[in-house]
Amino acid sequence: MSIVTPGRLHGLDAVRGGALLLGIVFHAGFSFFPGDQFWLIMDTQRSAAVSGLSYVLHIFRMTIFFLLAGYFGRMQTARLGVPSFMRDRLKRVAAPMIIFWPIMMVCFTILAIWGFVVANGGVIPENPPEPPAMTLQTFPLTHLWFLYVLLLLYAGMLVGRALLSALRVRTALGRMSDWVLRHVSRLGVLPIVMAMPIAVAILYHQNWHPFFGIPTPEYGFVPNRVSVIAYGGAFGLGWLLQREPDHLRRATKLWPLFLLGAVALTGYCLAMVGTTVTYYQPLSEQAAAIYPWAYALAIWFWTFGLIGLALKVWSEESPARRYIADASYWLYLIHLPIIMALQILVSQWALPAELKYAAILGLSIPLMLVSYEILVRYTFIGRLLNGRKRSRSPRHKKEISA
Questions:
Q1: What pTM did the predictor assign?
Q2: Which residues, 6 or more positions from 78, have their beta carbon under 8 angstroms from its beta carbon?
Q3: Residue 307 belongs to what H/E stretch?
């Protein structure tokens, strides 16, 4: 078995944190999307620029996250061993999901009531909508769905490893995967290989919404097939890429070409679907056949292009980037109620949508960073989320005591 435990890859830390922070940017734009109401509160002002930006960010942010989750997951397994790794994941992934889910649901319920009142001119609606029934198929995982999916992927990977070891084929299959990755990466076609199953899954997915790409598995305990293939494939690839030190760099060495391809494909896709969000978004027969392939390729061109760029320009340690990477988990866990509250607050203001969007981000992100510094970084919450015991420097303690 190949075991690789390289030094800290600062570029990957930055990209992983950035992928979570882009989720905040993505969700902050929901109330400004032109078209049908699909969010709790829709602003009186809408913006094609905001919806276009959100469309682009959503193409790649979660695929990058799950690829790096697989990469770092295998690194931690090799370093800690399977039992310690399982305990670590239960602490840092399962526990936050269990703790934060009821808190989020209470917040969302309060915000839903407030949002309905504001949208109804300050009056409580006579016939408010009925809350959805909670079943195994409709259970709301909220924005914490990524933690649930991560747990499934960790469990699946560890069970698969154990089964392959019991069959005495894990070493041989590992070497085979290394050989395939070397040759496919050298040819520069790994993004194409990874995009193919996603495109096929999309083509056969009923009621697919082209604007939102990979259907988010935020409801129910069985993720939809497209998300399993897309995010499970990314996680598995990340796990395999960690087997050899050169796998990842080899796979991303053509990052400038990947980024150029990503921009071109994204431009085509955006031209096909537009920036107005509707529940029924029909594509022409030709576009319906081409769009899934273009979108799937864009996912992986962005993913490899941005990771390659990060490895190139962010290879050196940066205290600022390290701080943001550490804080990003906390920010993502708590951001949605804060973002939604601000969206409701500004929804009736007669200001340009872009200005209100910038104000939401400009207020919420610094506020959440302050909360991280005060409530999380040096507390038991930080030890729970980041897996490290931190302490303030002696100088900092002296300044506080003074």
A1: 0.92
A2: 3, 4, 5
A3: helix 285-313
